[in-house]
Amino acid sequence: MRTLVLLGIVGLLAQLVDGSLGMGYGVTSATLLLLIGANPAAASATVHMAQIGTTLAAGVSHWRFGNVDWRVVRRIALPGGIGAFLGAAFLSWLSTEAAGPLMSGILLALGGYILLRFTVWDTPRGNLGKPVRKRFLAPLGLAAGFIDSTGGGGWGPIGTPALLAGGRIEPRKVIGSIDTSEFVVALASSLGFVIGLGLSGINLAWVAVLLIGGVIAAPIAAWVVRLLPPRMLGSLVGGVIVLTNVHAILGGDLIELPGAAQVAAYLTAVLAWAGAVAWSLRAHLADREAERRVAAGSAGVEEIEEPFRVDVRD
């Protein structure tokens, strides 16, 4: 019972993160499932079956708040579904001994990418309003869908930064479009796992509690995306994912280090995470101060011009 309650809370928090950043639900949930001893293929299958409901709820919520670019959804969803189905079939075929390190490695890389993405890089806006190229979206969807199934997550961490990097779509519409198209990815991935594992290999109770938590959080996240500083949240979540999967890799069969070396590796990761969060906070405060100065300068110009206005009726 305790495990189910914990998973429900994780589902809620993971969807809150995902709906706010456009990434994080699968990576966060799959990391926890691996941590409590789930089979890698079963963990990814559980997450993706729950995501059928959470992504549907998230898509409806983002649509109602005007956060969806349907041209992007149409062009990226189908290739993403194909890649997800192939990834699910591949992971179901692998042995547990091979799949465990592979999934932990993918999750570690994705967590590190999220951490760097929201700590160091800003969002370009120079091409805002220009259409996204079709030949870019199809390969992106195929690759992101495949990695999403094999790693238990990855659609958001790959798709969201790739669309943000072009600066052609508003950040909130990037997040909303990625979350909405993920419904097709989750559906195709789940179908692949059901064919490969059968329903007996998937814990439906875990699916249900992850789904309930995610559905509750979906409308909240669609609203929060307009208010929450993404740099801070991205750094915090990326650090949690990195630390958890560093523990999984160093404490498992992939890498065997002496106890002192493991402690040193953990401390290094914690210090790097703390530095990233501090950097993100500093960058966020600097951005706010710059916006305040621009707003104050605009207000000052209006005050200067006001006394010199002439009423032509006089």
Task: Please give a structural write-up.
InterPro entries: TM_pro_TauE-like, TSUP/Inactive_protease-like. Belongs to the 4-toluene sulfonate uptake permease (TSUP) (TC 2.A.102) family. Keywords: Cell membrane, Membrane, Transmembrane, Transmembrane helix. It comes from Spinactinospora alkalitolerans. The protein has 314 residues and is mostly helical. The chain has one domain. It has helices at 2-21, 25-35, 40-64, 70-93, 96-119, 134-151, 155-166, 171-197, 204-224, 230-250, 259-305. Helix 2 (25-35) packs across helix 5 (96-119) and helix 3 (40-64) packs parallel to helix 9. It starts with a helix and ends in a 9-residue tail after the last helix.
Q: How many E strands?
A: 0
- Major beta sheet, specifics? none
By DSSP (H or I, 4+ residues per run), the number of helices equals: 11
- H/E order of the elements? HHHHHHHHHHH
Contiguous runs where pLDDT drops below 50 for at least 5 residues? 124-128
**Overall pLDDT level:** 78
Radius of gyration: 21 Å
Overall shape: globular
Number of domains: 1
Fraction of residues in β-strands: under 5%
Distance between the termini: 80 Å
Helix content: over 70%
- Determine the structural class based on helices, strands and strand pairing: mainly alpha
List the helices and strands and how they pair.
Blueprint: H1 2-21, H2 25-35, H3 40-64, H4 70-93, H5 96-119, H6 134-151, H7 155-166, H8 171-197, H9 204-224, H10 230-250, H11 259-305
Helix pairs in contact: 1-2, 1-9, 2-3, 2-5, 2-10, 3-8, 3-9, 4-6, 4-8, 5-10, 5-11, 6-7, 7-8, 10-11
